[in-house]
């Protein structure tokens, strides 16, 4: 039974409205995972949502804006054998 093609991994991330101006298709990005400390997994932006939405994830930070809107972005990762589908990641678009 085949559930899906995991040869190419994609990451869905929520970008806050204040950071949307820095997005562009093809922008370089990377993700990190607590499971692999010190490693960066490179990729690029392949999809930018067309509709603003509500922020679904909240932190315990008391200064977090709860009314912030987000835009969903998809990052396609370069080939990597280390990452597994469902692993929690932190994404960074642009920069080093």
Explain what you see.
With 96 residues, this protein is mainly beta. The protein has one domain (13-93): Efflux pump adaptor protein, beta barrel domain (Elongation Factor Tu (Ef-tu), domain 3, Beta Barrel). Helix content is 0%, strand content 36%. The chain has strands spanning 10-16, 28-32, 41-48, 53-54, 69-77, 90-93. Strands 1, 2, 3, 4, 5 and 6 form a 6-stranded antiparallel β-sheet that branches. β2 (28-32) and β3 form a beta hairpin. It is globular. The model has no long low-confidence stretch (mean pLDDT 81).
Task: Briefly characterize the structure.
It contains no helices and six strands. With 96 residues, it is mainly beta. It has a single domain, classed as Elongation Factor Tu (Ef-tu), domain 3.
Strand content: 35-45%
User: Can you give the mean pLDDT?
Assistant: 81
Question: What is the CATH domain class?
Answer: Mainly Beta
Largest β-sheet summary: 6 strands, antiparallel
* CATH T-level fold name: Elongation Factor Tu (Ef-tu), domain 3
Q: Tell the overall outline.
A: globular
Order of helices and strands: EEEEEE
Got a strand count?
6
Fraction of residues in helix: under 10%
**Tally of discrete structural domains:** 1
Which structural class fits the helix and strand makeup?
A: mainly beta
Give the number of helices: 0
Poorly predicted segments: none
CA radius of gyration = 14 Å
User: Which CATH architecture is right?
Assistant: Beta Barrel
CATH superfamily annotation:
Efflux pump adaptor protein, beta barrel domain
Our measurement of the CA-to-CA distance between the termini, rounded to an integer number of angstroms, reads 40 Å
Oligomeric composition of the shown chains: single chain
